[in-house]
Specification:
253 residues, alpha+beta, Arc Repressor Mutant, subunit A, Beta-Lactamase, 2 domains, six-stranded antiparallel beta sheet, two-stranded antiparallel sheet, 8 helices, 45% helix, disordered N terminus
Amino acid sequence: MAKPMKEPPAYGVTSVDHALQLAVILQVEGPLTVSEAAIRLGVARSTAHRLLSTLVYRDFAVQSEDRTYRVGPVLEIAAQTQSNVAAIRAAALGPLRILVEALDETANVSIRTGRTIRFIAAVECSQALRVGSREGMVLPAHLTTGGLVMLAALTDDELSALYAATPATGSGERPDLARLRTELRAIRRSGVALNLERSERGVVAVGRGVTNASGDTVAAVSVSMPSVRHSPRRMKEVVAALTAAANSISAGL
C-alpha cells in the first residue's frame, strides 16, 4: 500500500520553515547570497538577512569574506560524522555516568571536524556549583580540552595543513602553531590534556582520547569542574577515572 504524501503541519511557523529550508539549501546546494535566499523563499531581502543571521548565530551557517553564506560547523559535522556520532554517543553514555559518580564532576564527550569540536554527550554532576552541560556546542578545537586531545593525534604536517588556509566553515581563528605544537607534544607523551580556564574563565577540564578498533582517535572524553575544586593533588584520581572511562568507551566501539 502506497504511503500518503506528507502534508505540512497545521501549526507550522513560517519563519521556522524558512530557516529550515535555508539550512537544507546550504547543506545540499552550497553557498548563496542574501538576494538569492530572498528569491528562493519569496521574501524580502531584510527577512532573508535576518534568517541567515540567525543560522550564523546558531552555527548552522557562516558568512564568508565575499558576503556569501556557507554551511556552518553544526551542519558540516552532521554531514561528515552522522554515521559515527550515534555509535560514539551510545558507547559513551554509560561510562560517562560512571565517571560522574566517581568524581562528582560534569563529564563530556566531543568529536572533531576540521578546526572545531562539537560536544555530543554530557552528564552533569549533582553539586550545586558545577559546570553545566555543553552538549550541542561547537567550539574551536585548540581552545578546548577534547580538541587538544584530538589535535594531538595529528602529525605536525597534518596540523600545519589544517591551519594553512581559511576553511569554508568560517572557523578562521589561528592559534600560535609553534606554541600549539609544544603543547600537543606534551599531550602525546602523557595522553592527557589539561585546560586551565582556557576556554572559559573559572573552569578547569581534563581530557583523554577515545579510539576505535583501528586505534584512531575518534573522540575525547573530558571532565569539567569549577577551578576552585581543582588541585594538582586531585589529578591522579581524575586521570585514573578518565582512563577507565576512555577505555570503556573505546571498547564499546
